[in-house]
Amino acid sequence: MATLLAVICGCGVIHGKAGDQEGGSRPAGNSPSARVNANGAPAIATTDARGLYLDSLRRQALQPSINLVQEYYLERQAYPGGSREAVISGVDYRTKDVRLEKSEVTVENGKASVAWANWCQGRYQDWFWSSVGRWTQESDRCPSLTDQVWLNDGLGVGGLTPEQADIFVGHLADCKGLINARGKSMVERAGKQYVRLEIQVTPQVVGSGNPIGAGMYLDAFKYTELKADTHPYNLIGREVDALRIVRYIDPQTRLPVYSETQASGDGKWTMHRVEYSFDGPVQSRPRPTRVGIPQMTWQPERR
User: Fold this and answer.
1) From CA 271, how far away is CA 11, in angstroms rounded?
2) Residue 29 forms part of a structural domain
3) For residue 252, what are the domain limits?
4) Rounded to 5 degrees, what are φ and ψ at 166?
5) Would you say 160 and 224 are in contact if contact means Cβ atoms under 8 Å apart?
6) Which residues contact 292 (CB under 8 A, 6 or more apart)?
7) Which CATH number belongs to the domain containing residue 193 in this structure?
8) Cβ(214)–Cβ(206) below 8 Å
9) Is 58 left (phi over 0), alpha (psi -120 to 50) or beta?
10) Domain count, the chain
């Protein structure tokens, strides 16, 4: 991941050690996120999608644990239901207890199968290869640094203090033109109301280099002065990516329940679907003899 340079879009970007920028780090209480939350939650009816998204991102950052079901597509023609990575994951940021079940799903002639899978519960990471037909232990680090990205949704984070959450969200909010509202609506699913947010993340010019989009989330995390490899945190996709996000939030908790993130940049395209569950232990189950394909309950939006 390349080191980011100084930004001219109004957001401070770290070069080197976290917090090193002209004028010093911003006090946590001065962040836009802190101001929004100082007098309670922003009203859904009068707050635009951007404000609700940032508030939801902050609330997500405060959660001590998270369980997820995910799908990740690398080819537009495969979405939805085609070849993909399918993931079940969980992390408790207090105990560092983790769960990771990841399968590479291939679809040929309408039939889905698992080419390979890995399984992470406890210290060791096991792999399953369809050509072999059994599990083998291949790593004593669980999960790998690369796979840590699946422990959250690839943009947001959890396990932060209120001050750290204000810093993380505040730096994103301060970057002019980065996060923009595209739409907001109330929708019903299975008899329950949700707020559907549409967000556009537009890359911003960084110094004399390339515009940076999704990479700003990683940079905002650096200002918390936590270590990404041990907290853990990682960014899915590429720093230069523009993002189109659809995020459904619970109107009571303001936490996300489902999201779709379409990323594009450098001629590449990806789609990331996520279902969220908060405030519970990291779920686990015995490792199966043969692997199945994780299933999501939310239906994909065709975009």
Assistant:
1) 27
2) no
3) 45-102+147-278
4) -65, -40
5) yes
6) 103, 114
7) 2.50.20
8) no
9) alpha
10) 1
> Per-residue pLDDT tens for 214-268?
999 999 999 999 999 999 999 998 999 999 999 999 999 999 999 999 999 888 9
Specify the pTM: 0.85
Please, which pLDDT band fits residue 95 given cuts at 50, 70 and 90?
very high
How many Å apart are CA 85 and CA 131, to the nearest integer?
A: 18
Residue 107 lies inside a defined structural domain of this protein:
no
Q: Is the peptide bond preceding residue 294 cis, with omega within 30 degrees of 0?
A: no
- Which two tokens mark 299? 């239906």
Per-position b or e across 258-287, b if 16+ CB within 10 A of its CB: bbbbbbbbeeeebbbbbbbebeeebeeeee
Tell whether 288 is covered by a domain.
Answer: no
The answer to whether position 17 is within a domain reads: no
Kind of pairing between the strands at 192-201 and 256-265: unpaired
Please classify residue 45 by burial: count the beta carbons closer than 10 Å to its beta carbon, then call 0-12 exposed, 13-18 middle and 19+ buried: exposed
Instruction: Produce one character per residue of 155-174: b if its CB has 16 or more CB atoms within 10 Å, e if not.
Output: bbbbbbeeebbbbbbbbbbb
Using one digit for the tens of pLDDT, what is the confidence trace for 186-227?
999 989 999 999 999 999 987 767 899 999 999 999 999 999
Q: Rounded to an integer, what distance in angstroms lies between the CA atom of residue 276 and that of residue 255?
A: 9
What residue type is assigned to position 278 of the chain? F
